[in-house]
Write a structure and sequence with these properties.
91 residues; mainly alpha; Rossmann fold; 4 helices; 37% helix
């Protein structure tokens, strides 16, 4: 969908991108059982979850003039989680 929106609006100078966050250390996520949090962090190449301000910084960048040539992209911000085969379910 983001590629379609981007293609239809790029000539107007309008960009469209998708942000694909992984585990973000929000209050609700931090309230998950310790064993789940430990498995998540152990499976992440970054060995930690994203902080909300890191996601906000990506949003701010994509909304800025500095990202004016970035359009039609799906930008992952997941500490490498998408590279993993880890499951959050039972072992």
């Amino acid at each position: 969908m983001v590629k379609t929106v981007a293609a239809e609006n790029v000539a107007r100078g309008i960009t469209a991108n998708a942000i694909l966050p992984g585990m973000v250390a929000t209050e609700k996520v931090r309230a998950m059982p310790a064993e789940v949090l430990e498995r998540v962090e152990a499976a992440l190449p970054a060995r930690r979850m994203a902080e909300p301000d890191e996601v906000a910084a990506l949003v701010a960048f994509l909304a800025s003039r500095d990202a004016g040539y970035v359009t039609g992209e799906a930008v992952g911000i997941d500490g490498g989680l998408s590279l993993s085969t880890m499951s959050l379910g039972s072992e």
